[in-house]
Amino acid sequence: QQQVKQSPQSLIVQKGGIPIINCAYENTAFDYFPWYQQFPGKGPALLIAIRPDVSEKKEGRFTISFNKSAKQFSLHIMDSQPGDSATYFCAARSGAGSYQLTFGKGTKLSVIP
Amino acid sequence: SQTIHQWPATLVQPVGSPLSLECTVEGTSNPNLYWYRQAAGRGLQLLFYSVGIGQISSEVPQNLSASRPQDRQFILSSKKLLLSDSGFYLCAWSPGHYYNEQFFGPGTRLTVL
To answer: Do B100 and A34 touch (CB under 8 A)?
Structure first.
């Protein structure tokens, strides 16, 4: 119930491609869904986040799509660049007042020049 | 702006030795504070969180402990390290408002030999 299942585990795309990372959950109490980007040896950085009352959110080349009925959300990276090569984590918060985020296991993205 | 510091950045310790990792946050007050561990190639495991001075919640029973002696200071400790304590330790803070976005520090790489 508390899990967030993230796929794929790893992803290789050509420069300019559109990698898509998917996450699925079961807990309908989740009400906030952030994505984090982590470079090797660094802490994760908050990239973009969405609430379940919104179906899509864009920030620059990053887009979150959210399907509440399917309990799925995904991250799209438009015009991907080698500098986007990193590990991406989705997460979910279990309701108002919760202090905890449940993280997916991460997707290692490699963008080939 | 808010800044989160962790030290040391890297640590190599023998099995059975004590541990003290420190995290401080600047530019905010009354933050929620978190300790995570990230094993190699794995996701993020929440170890402890704190919503105020002296208030610690433990998520995973183990030989680690946490303390919050000051509002913006969070310390992770162990009396005797195990080999399995090796990993990347991340401190995070959140502002404590409704969505509680979490922001991570640079991390400490701990190797127990």
So the answer is: no
